[in-house]
Amino acid sequence: MDIAEKLDILARDAQYDLSCACSTKRPEEHRKRSTSGSWLYPVTVASGGSGIMLKTLLSNSCANDCKYCPLRSDSDTRRISLQPDSLARYFMDLQSNRKLIGLFLSSGVIESPDFTMDRLIATADLLRNRYRYRGYIHIKIIPGASHAAIDRVLSLASAVSLNIETPGSIHFSKLSKSKQYENGIIQGLTYLSEQTAKGQRYSRISKTSQFIVGASDETDQEILKYTWGMYRSLGYDRLYYSAYQQGLGDSSIPGEQRDSTTCDESRQLLLPELPILPNNTAPLMREHRLYQADFLLRSYGFSFQELLFDHSGNLDLRMDPKLLWAQNNPEFFPVSLSKGTKEQLLRVPGIGPILARRIIDHRKNHPLGSLDTLCTQNHLFEKARPFLQR
Questions:
Q1: Whose CA is closest to 239, among 252, 225, 249, 251?
Q2: Which of 55, 62, 88, 263 could form a disulfide with 126 if both were Cys (CB 3.0 to 4.6 A apart)?
Q3: What are the structural domains, with CATH classification, of the chain?
C-alpha cells in the first residue's frame, strides 16, 4: 500500500481517541476525506481555535492487551505502520494543498512505550526542524513513557494528552494486565502537570485526558471525582469521555437530543467477552450526562460536592444535572435578571457563560426586563424562565 492507503486505515483507527476535541455540532464539520483519500477531522483545540486536522496513528500495532480496544494485541486487525519521514513529508504535502489546523499524532505501542515515543518524537522533530512547520501538533503520550521522552515531546508539541482511562487502579486492572496504572498512567499525568504548571518552561502547552466509560464497573461519581481532581489539583485543560458501546444501538433516553461533543464515528467497541454492566445500559446518554457535569465543573463554577448522584453513584439519565441541582435548591431562586451576578446567572438552567456575559454587558446601558431580548433560542428561554425574575 502507498502512504495514502495506509493513512486511510490508520486515521480511521485513530477515531477512538477523542483527546483532540473532535466536534460534530454541524453536518459540515463532520470528518471528510482529502483529495488524496486521507481522513481529515474537525477539531476545537483547548485554546479555542478550530479547523480541520489530520488525525492519525503512526502504527496500529500494539503490544498491550486492553480489553476495550479494537487494536489490542490479540485482535484480528491488519497491522500497518508508517515511518516518521514518510508521514512528515506527506503531511507537509497535504498542508501545501489545503490549509490544516495541524496534526494529531498517536500510535499503538510498538515494542515498548519509549520506542514508540521515539518514533512520534522523530515525526514531530522532522516537521519542526526540517520542514520548519510552526503550526499545531498534538502528540499522544504513551503510558509508561520516560520523563525524558515526555520532556522531548513537550519541546515539540502544541498540545499533549495522556489518557487516564479509568478512575482508579481497581477498575483498570479488570481491563488490562500489560499496562501499569500507577507507574504508567498516574505518574505520567502528574509529571505532565508539574512540567506545564504556571511559571514552568512548558506552561503554554495544553494537556488533556480521556476516560473510557462503561468498559469496567466504575460509577459516574468515581469518574467525576477524578475529573474534579484533575482540573483543580493537576490543572488539566480538558477531559473527554468515550462511551464503551456493545452492539449497534444506543438505548438513549427517548425524546432528548444528545449533545454532539464527540466524533461522528459510531465508535462501537464490540467485545463479547465483556458483559453489559448495569451502569452502562445507555452508553451514549451516560457519556452526554458526564459531559454536562464536566461543563458544570469546568465552566459554570460548580464543585464536585454539588453534583447530585443516585443511590448507585450515577447521574440521572433523564435530567440535565444542572436542572436537577436547580430543582433541589429552590432557596437559590429566582435569580434577578437586572441584578444577578455572573455566578448566580450561571446557576440558572438554560443560561451558559456566553449568555450570562451578554446579559451583564447589555444591562450596563439598557434595562433588561426579559431574557427573550437577548436569547434567540426559545428552548433555552423556556428552560430558564421558571428560575428568573426581573
A1: 225
A2: 88
A3: 3-307 (3.20.20.70), 329-389 (1.10.150.320)
